[in-house]
What we know:
The protein is mainly α and about 100 residues long. It folds into 2 domains: about 5-35; about 35-95, Multidrug-efflux Transporter Regulator, Chain: A, Domain 2. The chain is built from 4 helices and 3 strands, in the order αβααββα. The chain has helices at about 10-30, 45-50, 55-65, 80-90; strands at about 40, 70, 75-80. Strands 1-3-2 form a 3-stranded antiparallel beta sheet. A hairpin with a 5-residue loop joins strand 2 and strand 3. Helix 2 packs across helix 3 (about 55-65). The longest helix has 25 residues, at about 10-30. The chain is rod-shaped, with a radius of gyration of 23 Å. The protein starts with 7 loop residues before the first helix and ends in a 9-residue tail after the last helix. The mean pLDDT is about 85.
Amino acid sequence: MQTIEIDKEVFEDMVKSMQFLHTMVSRMWKLLHPPAGSGKWLTSYAAANAMCITVRQLQTLKSSGKIGFFQEPGGNCLFSEAEIGRYLDDNRMEAGGCL
């Protein structure tokens, strides 16, 4: 068995580098893999169609933080059916007989 000696500062730098790499790999994993068991994911067009709004209105909801989404590495956004249902339930308005 061979033994290698390194300076303490070099060892600490190596540990810091490994911790940084672990953090970055963990973040990339979360970006590349949507949460398990989260149901069906819809494209922007399918989500807008399900909500009876335009894609632009959906983008506004997304950018204002009113509806959650998952962004794929290529830049496409996916919307959870559960998230869309939650938004619709929370923002339901009853007809007030104004017609």
